[in-house]
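Risk register update: the risk of archive-format incompatibility is retired. Evidence:
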Amino acid sequence: MYTTSFKKYGNKKTTVGDKTFDSKFEAGVAVDLEYRVKAGEILGFDCQYRVDIPIYNESGRIVHSVSHKVDFRTHNLDGSFSLIEAKGFETADYKFRRKLLEKIWLIEHKDHDYHVIYQSKRR
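Archived output:
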């Protein structure tokens, strides 16, 4: 079953099989990941993987935590993980959370890497 509905920033909420995605582009990335699983390139993937990023004060204590949902987390053959974002438009909030993810969370989680797949602009 394949359905769509319009949302903010012109994206269309899209359902592929039993999963609903925030955009057609994100759904397309998920389909590509399914093909990679079937081809044996990756072991599997999670959708909407939650990352909790700790915020530290000057003395090194955690004073706050910022959560971010990455579109996908792939399970690689070598035991590592890849965080994948499917982006059509970068909001200020996303840029802030991405900076925290890259500067804090990824440094603490060496078995993860981070990739952003940008949707090409059609004119």
